[in-house]
Amino acid sequence: MRLFVAVTSDRPAADHLAAALAPVRERPGAPRWTAPELRHLTLVFLGEVDEATAARLPDRFVGVASRHRAVRLRLAGAGTFPPRGAPRVLWIGVDGEPHDLDGLRRLASDLARTARSLRIPVERRPFRPHVTVGRWRQGDPVDPTVVAELSAYRGPDLHLHRFVLLRSHLGPRPRYAELGSWELGPRTGTAN
Questions:
Q1: Residue 126 class from Cβ within 10 Å (0-12 exposed, 13-18 middle, 19+ buried)?
Q2: Any idea which residues carry the catalytic annotation?
Q3: What CATH architecture is 2-185?
Q4: 151, 77 in Cβ contact below 8 A?
Q5: Which pLDDT band, with edges at 50, 70 and 90, does 5 fall under?
Q6: Per DSSP, what are the bridge partners of residue 157?
């Protein structure tokens, strides 16, 4: 099964982002927009994981959650991947106080280390927190003013107090199934 660990935004932050995207949604050269219910901030992408290994993740994630505290961040700014050449992904960035951003990075690192301890081959590239909001297909026209307008975006404060393990179902209508969630701090998580 294809798995990843993420945090999702609360309703006010999601609604604020949707309102910020509205003025550029129908613009020629805008990307294909990610459905609001699929928007998330990936902490670690696990990829294909066999069921036996996946069954071991919940107990390990209880320990990860207990070592980290909630962070207060906000969605802010915008950019594209790749950073050079024709853009393929439009993202909204993450901003906050340095200790909160460091806390988010430490959480992502701890989750990756935990996955590797189960022999899940997690990539070792730097963690760049972002929320993907749109994608361009190769050869699609790209309107650079979409990115320019969204680069000034600043969302409301977002209190990230839990992370979730999601299973990705690909296809014409992608969807995610939550397999478990873990509250940050001394409490334990729940697996579905």
A1: exposed
A2: 40, 130
A3: Alpha-Beta Complex (3.90)
A4: yes
A5: very high
A6: 74
